[in-house]
Amino acid sequence: MQQLAERQRDFAAALLDPGLPMPHGLVGPDGEPDPRRFAVYRNNVAVSLIEALDDAFPAVQRIVGADFFRAMARAYVMVQPPRSPIMLDYGAGFPEFIRSFEPAAGLPYLEDVARIERAWTEAYHAPEASPIDPGTFSAVAPDQLPAMQLELHPSLRLVRSHFPALTIWQMNLADGIPAPVDLAAGGEDALVVRPVADVEVRMIPRGSFEFIQALSDGKPVLTALEDALTANSRFDLSASLADLMRAGAFAGYSLAPELMRT
Predict the structure, then answer these.
(1) Cβ-proximal residues to 152 (8 Å cutoff; 6+ apart), any chain
(2) Beta-bridge mates of residue 85
(3) Which residue, of 69, 110, 225, 231, is most buried by count of CB atoms within 10 Å of its CB?
(4) Three-state helix/strand/coil letters over the chain
(5) Is the dihedral of CA 130, 131, 133, 139 positive or negative?
(6) At what angle do helices 35-56 and 4-16 cross, to 10 degrees?
(7) 188-193 and 157-161 strand pairing
(8) pLDDT reported for residue 184
(9) For 58-84, what is each residue's pLDDT tens digit?
(10) Distance, CA of 98 to CA of 58 (rounded, Å)
(11) What pLDDT, on the 0 to 100 scale, is given for residue 127?
(12) CB of 109 within 8 A of CB of 183?
């Protein structure tokens, strides 16, 4: 006899692959095998997963159209079944899948649009935290600023694209108006954060991505500034900190003792 774990694996595989037969030993309420009943159940599972992707990636769906999206989502469901009972987790690998989906090769920015949408979902469901008040910085002496380590809000996400993916995403929201976009115009870096109730998505200037990433890695402001200046020699620290404070990007701070000036 098959072990329970083996039977469960066979059942899950057959649910997501219509090319596989109904698992052996599976019977209906009358005690008899019922392939038609199983086919209906199989289809319902696939439809539910496709609809979950449709809800999570509305701009991608609008760009490619409903039929194309459902075909792409179905292909994803076949190779990436859920690994968690929490449906929120499903679709994390969808942007990467889009990159390898040959029929979407003519839309090289589509993966990055999907990554923005995934970042939006993650930010929306991230843990709560109160952004620090801008006035908090007034308690820090100017000569201590380089030693400051800033704690990012837990909802904060960064998305870098070599294409104007943020512009394309914005145009394909429910109230957006699609228009021609010059794909050679350059890339865009997006900041996604939910400081209070609503998720905010905004473009950040060159160097900000490296600056925020360095802060995320635990680097103090001085070291993060060096990373930002490497990416953009005109990076404006004061303007960047002010913008990030207004966005609610910080949840706290500390001072690195080894960098404190005496």
Answers:
(1) 212, 215, 216, 249, 250, 251
(2) none
(3) 110
(4) CCCHHHHHHHHHHHHHCCCCCCCCCCCCCCCCCCHHHHHHHHHHHHHHHHHHHHHHCHHHHHHHCHHHHHHHHHHHHHHCCCCCCCHHHCCCCHHHHHHHCHHHCCCCCHHHHHHHHHHHHHHHCCCCCCCCCHHHHHHCCHHHHHHEEEEECCCCEEEEECCCHHHHHHHCCCCCCCCCCCHHHCCEEEEEECCCCCCEEEEECCCHHHHHHHHHCCCCHHHHHHHHHHHCCCCCHHHHHHHHHHHCCEEEEEECHHHCCC
(5) positive
(6) 70
(7) antiparallel
(8) 86
(9) 999 999 999 999 999 999 988 888 777
(10) 14
(11) 92
(12) yes
Q: What are phi and psi of 193, to 5 degrees?
A: -155, 150
Residues 6+ apart with CB under 8 A from 40: none
Q: Rounded CA gap, 181 and 113, in Å?
A: 14
Polymer length in residues for the chain: 262
Long-range pairs, 219-224, Cβ under 8 A, ≥24: 219/149, 220/146, 220/147, 220/148, 220/149, 220/256, 220/259, 221/145, 221/146, 221/147, 221/148, 221/149, 221/150, 222/145, 222/146, 222/147, 222/259
Provide the mean pLDDT of the chain.
84
Averaged pLDDT, 108-137: 91
